Amino acid sequence: MTIKINKLLVTGFNKEDASVLFDGMSHLIYGPTDTGKSYIVECFRYCLGGRDKPKDIGLSEGYNTISIQIEVSGTEKYTIFRDTNSNEVSVFEGYLDAQPGSEVDSLEDELSTLITKWSNAEGKSIITKRGVKGNVTAGDIRFLTIFDEIRTLDNVVFVGEDSNRKTRNASSLSLVLSGHDDSEIVLPLSNEEINKAKGHVEAIEEQIESLKGEIPEGIIKSEVEESLVKVDTEIKRINNVIKGVSDELIEIQSQQMTLESDKNKIEREISSFKESLSRFNLLNDKYSNDISRLEVLKKAASIVPNFKTRACPLCLTSISEQENYGEHAVNFEELSLASEAEINKIRGLQEGLKIAIKDVNDEISILNESHISKISDINDLLSIKKSIMNPAAPIDRYGIDVLSNKKHEMSFLIRTLDKIDALSLRLTEMSKKTKRTKHKIVRDIASCSTSLCNSIKELLIEWKVPGVETISYDDIDCDIKINHRKRVSFGKGKRGIFLTAFMVCLMERAIQKGFPHSGFLIIDSPVVTYKDPKHGDLLPVD
Fold first, then answer.
1. How many whole angstroms separate alpha carbon 434 and alpha carbon 361?
2. Residue 31, CB half-sphere, CA atoms under 13 Å: how many?
3. Cα 459 to the chain's mean position, in Å?
4. CA dist list (Å): 125 to 122, 349, 440, 445
5. Which pLDDT tens digit goes with each residue over 399-423?
6. Are 82 and 138 in contact (CB under 8 A)?
7. pLDDT at position 531, please?
8. What is the count of structural domains for the chain?
9. What is the band of 132 on the pLDDT scale with cuts at 50, 70, 90?
10. Residue 398 has what pLDDT?
C-alpha cells in the first residue's frame, strides 16, 4: 500500500477555503520568504498526526480545520480532518471538502493505525532504544516522509542528535531500505533491565548479609556437614535400639495381655466353682439335717407303741372315744419303715453329693495351681519389662533431645549456607547484567545500500549537480557520503539537495519493492533556502 496526496485544504468560519491541489507525480511550491511554504509543511505534519499545531502566519488566522484528501493503493479514497482547536481527528471515506455531520460515520481505527497500515508497515518491529523493540508508528512514517526547512538544511546526520531517537530512527530507515524488520535481531539488555538488575543485586547483597548475620563467623560448611552426619548416625542408632526395645516391649505386652486374660479366666472359673461348692455344702447340710430328723421320727415310731393309752387329763376322755379316731390313727410301723427308706434315699444322695464336692475341690486346686503359675509368669514378664525400660547401660550418651536439637541447629546452618551459596551464584549472574556493554546491531543491508547509492548518484547526475563522483552509505550515521565526505560536511545548499536525492531514491526503491513507506515525500527548501523579496520580479509569474 502507498498513499497519494490529492488535496490539502484549510477552512474556517467566514473564511474563504484555502487549498493546494496535488494531482501529479511531483509538485513544487515556491515563493519568497514568509509566503506560507513552511506553513503548508506544518499543516501536512499536523493533519497526519503530528503533535505541534501549525504556527500562525497572519493569513492563517481564523482557519481552524485542516483536511487532506488521499488515495490509498490507487483505489481507496479518504479524507482526514483535524480541528486545530480541539485536536480531534476524523477519517472519512471519499473526497470531502467539508467535514460531514454525525449522520456519516468516520472510520473506527485511529489515524496512527491507519497510517502504518496504508504505509505497509503494520506489525513491523523495530528497535526503539537499547534493548527494546516496538512496532513502527505513524511518527516513524512522518520522520521518513516530512522534512521541514530546519531539518532539510541542518548540519546534523540523518538519524539526528537526540540519543533517545537515534536507535529508533536508524531502525526505521533500515526497515524502509531493506524491507526487513528487527524481529529476529537479538537485543542487549535495555537500560530498564540493567537498572532492574542493579536493584536485584542490591537486594541479593542485603539478603546475603542478613543470612550471614544468622550464623557464626568462620563457620565451614564441610565441617558442619561432617558433624551432622555423625549426629544423624547416632540418632539413627538410638532409634534402631529404641525400635528394637519397642518391638520387644510390644511382644512382652502382648504376652502379658494373654497371661492376664488367662489369669482372669481362671479366676472366674475358680469363683464359679467356689460358688457351686458353697451351694453343694448347703445341700449337704440340708441332707444331714433331714437324716437327723428322720432318725428321730423313726425312733419315736418304734417307742410310741409301747406307751399305755390314757384318758385326757382335762376331760378324762379316752383316745378311743375321740371323734374320727379310726380315720386318724397312726400306723407307727409303717411310719418307721418309711422313715428308714427316706433316710437310705437321702444318704444315697448325700454320697453322690460328697463325690461332686470332692471333684469341685479337685478342680479348684488345679485352677489355683494354674492361677499361681500365671501370676508367676506375669511377674517374670514385668521384671523383664522393667529391665528393658531401665537398662543398666544408657541407650544414648548425650540424650536424644540434645542430639535432636543439635541436628536441627546444624541443619539450619547448612540450609542457610546453601541459601548463601545460591544467592552468591545468582549475584554473580545478575552482576553481569548490570554492566553496560557495547552492542553493535548488525544488519545485512550492504547490497541494499549499494543499490540505493547508485540510484542517488544517477539522480544527482540527472539533476546536473556538479562534482558528484561517488556515493556511499555510512552505516553509523545512516546517512550518505559524497566523494567520501559526509553529507553534513557540505554547505547547507548541497546538504539540502543531497538529502532530497537520498529521500527520493529511498522512497522510489520502497515503492518499487513493496517495502514499508508512505509513498509520498514532503521536503521544505530542498534547493533554494531564501529568496530576497527585492528580487521577487525575477520569479516566474503564474
1. 102
2. 11
3. 61
4. 9, 124, 18, 17
5. 667 778 888 888 888 888 888 889 8
6. no
7. 36
8. 2
9. confident
10. 59
> CA distances (Å), 542 to each of 29, 30, 31, 539, in order?
12, 11, 11, 9
Q: Which structural domain range is residue 336 located in?
A: 221-319+328-389
- Indicate if 169 and 275 belong to the same structural domain: no
* Beta carbons of 14 and 501 less than 8 angstroms apart: no
3-state secondary structure of 447: helix
Give me the residue label for grid cell 553509523.
Answer: 476
472 pLDDT above the threshold of 70: yes
Residue from 137, 90, 89 nearest 115 by CA = 137
The cell numbers describing 308, all together, are 399305755
Parallel, antiparallel, or unpaired for β 146-147 and 522-523?
parallel
List b or e across 430-446, with b for residues whose CB sees 16 or more CB atoms inside 10 angstroms. beebbeeeeeebebebe
CA angle (192, 444, 486) in 5-degree steps: 85
According to the per-residue pLDDT averaged within each range, which of 110-119, 157-166, 263-272 is highest?
A: 110-119
Q: Which three cell numbers stand for residue 23?
A: 494531482
Mean pLDDT (the chain, rounded): 85
State residue 320's pLDDT score. 61
Q: Are residues 157 and 109 in the same domain?
A: yes
Same domain, 268 and 156: no
For residues 12 and 103, state if they share a domain.
Answer: yes
* Sheet strands side by side (includes 471-474): 471-474, 479-482, 485-486
Phi, psi of 476 (to 5 degrees): -75, -50
Query: What does the pLDDT read at residue 186?
Result: 74
Taken as a whole, the chain contains a residue count of 542
Residue 534 pLDDT: 42
**Predicted pLDDT of residue 538:** 45
Question: What is the arrangement of strands in the sheet containing 3-11, beginning at the earlier edge strand?
Answer: 18-21, 3-11, 65-72, 76-83, 89-93
> What is the identity of the amino acid at 13?
F
Residues 178, 288 within the same domain: no
Per-residue model confidence (pLDDT) at position 189: 65
User: pLDDT tens, 495-542?
Assistant: 999 999 999 999 999 999 999 999 999 999 877 643 333 444 444 443
Q: Is 536 exposed, middle or buried (0-12, 13-18, 19+ CB in 10 A)?
A: exposed
**418 domain residue, yes or no:** no
Q: In terms of Cα–Cα distance, which of 139, 135, 133 is closest to 192?
A: 133
DSSP state of 471: E
DSSP annotation string for 330-397: --HHHHHHHHHHHHHHHHHHHHHHHHHHHHHHHHHHHHHHHHHHHHHHHHHHHHHHHHHHS-SS-S-S
Q: Nearest Cα to 43, choosing from 35, 53, 31?
A: 53
Yes or no: say if 294 and 339 are a contact pair by the CB < 8 Å rule. Answer: yes
Three-point CA angle 412, 415, 420, nearest 5°:
125
